[in-house]
Amino acid sequence: MTTLQKTPLILHITIETLAALSFIFQPGTQLPGATREAELILASYGGLLLTTNLVCGVFVARAGFDATAGLVSLCVGTYHAWPMWRAYARLSSRSLRRVAGPSRVLGGPGVHLAVHAVCLGH
């Protein structure tokens, strides 16, 4: 049962590692036409995502699954509502759909919406 309980943490680590690396090493794909200052903020956000992965990794590595691990899972899970909102806004807005630059970063907004919905649902 413990491995099943840790699945949301493992899922978060898997998904957000890819996103973090994209924000850190290719911030321009996340926000086309970004200024250098904005790219640095995006890279910092990528670092923050990696930090959440480290926290999740600590709880995955721990023996058992206690109340604190459950609360961390809840906190990390609720994070996924925000990327879902961004993906929904991108899908709903004509102006956001026409933004120049790569529109399929890590699958594009439709994939982001679905993946983060799965993460939130676990």
Can you tell me about this structure?
- 80% of the residues lie in helices and 0% in strands.
- By secondary structure, it is mostly helical.
- The chain has one domain.
- It starts with a helix and ends with a helix.
- The chain crosses the membrane at residues 40-61.
- Keywords: Membrane, Transmembrane, Transmembrane helix.
Q: Looking at the structure, what is the overall shape?
A: globular
Number of strands: 0
The biggest beta sheet, please?
none
Helix percentage: over 70%
**Overall mean confidence score, pLDDT:** 88
Unreliable residue stretches: none
C-alpha end-to-end distance: 14 Å
Transmembrane segments: 40-61
Keywords: Membrane, Transmembrane, Transmembrane helix
Could you name the key traits of this structure?
122 residues; 7 helices; 80% helix; mainly alpha; globular
Short description:
With 122 residues, this protein is mainly alpha-helical. Helices cover 80% and strands 0% of the residues.
SSE arrangement:
Blueprint: H1 2-25, H2 27-30, H3 36-61, H4 67-79, H5 81-92, H6 94-97, H7 108-121
